[in-house]
Amino acid sequence: MKSSQTTFVHSENEFASGVRKRPRGPRPRSSSTQTYIPEQPLVDLKSQAIAYYLHNHVQPLHDAPSIAKSVEDDIEWTFNSRRDSPTIQLAISVIALVLYGKAQNQPQAVVDACVAYQKLLHDIQFLLSSPAECDVEVCLFSTFCMGRYEDTVHASDQPITRAWAMRSASHHDGALAVLKAFKDRQSSSNPPIPDIVKHTRRGMIKSALMRNRSLPEWIWIGRDFGEEGLESEYDSMIVRLVDIRQRLFSLRSDVEGDRSSERTLVISELVKGCQDLELDISRFPSRFPNNWIRQKHLLPVESGVRDSPQIVYSYQNLSYASVWSRYYATRLLVNSTLIGSLKLLHSVPNSPAVQTITSPQHRQLQKGQSTIAEMASEFQSSLPFCLGNITGVITEEEIHPICVRWLAWPLTMVMFADELDRVKKEVFMAVIMRLGRRVGIGALMGVEDVVRQNEIASGR
Description:
This protein is 61% helix and 2% strand.
């Protein structure tokens, strides 16, 4: 049997057959396939922003005392534990994108933050239409992020207007409505109190202090919102201070009000309230644990620069320094309020107050002024440590963004101390503006407008 024979024909082109040499270098592409493919980043912009934000702004200090904590301490946990919530994920992208965009000069991140903010605002307005039924954690987290967004996008070269303040404050009012809904539920079912509820309430107290607003009675008792121990003690003092300052502001604003003995009695009550508050806050550090203790350092005279203290304090960590900074600022503001009350009492016709240098009120004035100067110096002596360098000058770029979290509120409190020496106040003002520039928060950079408006409101 014959085997079948198969013939294979191999056809080569001129290059393969060796007739012509193949040209060196890359082969030209056909014009129909030449398209531009942009480089794709390994991580998208939103992910970069969130990573930046979590690393630089909300790093948890695991041994931080509860008294120093705020909503920022809840962000990383909430973000990771509520990945199933699109609203939570949207909210953190708002604050992360805007802070990343401002601090890192990324305009597209700011644009993306604006788009995300508008969507979040729409979603939360719908949820808050029935606050009694809303997810408390979602709503409080989102209102915080939107308020911080407003603080950040404020242009530093524009005055802090009433319109901007109302936009920012509207988110605070929304959070207050959610807290009220939570409080109503608590009275009927006694649910566990999430940290974000406790910390949001602290934010509402700060807001009331800055806006000279009264606090509703249902929010007065810190224990109802999880405050205990030292934090409960400090909480009660701050609530009392908010009440006194709001009443004092109302009396100052009522220029046509009654100047009779009834008015004198009301102002005298405020004076007494400030005196009691000064006594309580002065004793507060004696309750601090031993590991909160501060260390005093004396710097060489030649190492000092303008406005730099010769005595500086150091602490075991930044959160302990923050507790002391709150003490300095609170006591300073209490004494400023006391002096303001005494001066208002003196303005009432026929009032016996401050008539002679031997009067008890005059001595109280002198003591208050001395305490203000002492607290301002103590606070200033803590700033080098808080900013990261107790031995010399630190540049703006060297300030870690986390400093804003621990320092912004005590510094803001000082800005409302009408009786603080203007030169000393400008030292603190310069620090808070540096922090604002470092992280791109326009409201901090515009703090000078806040001071000016507060002075006008106080009749200064």
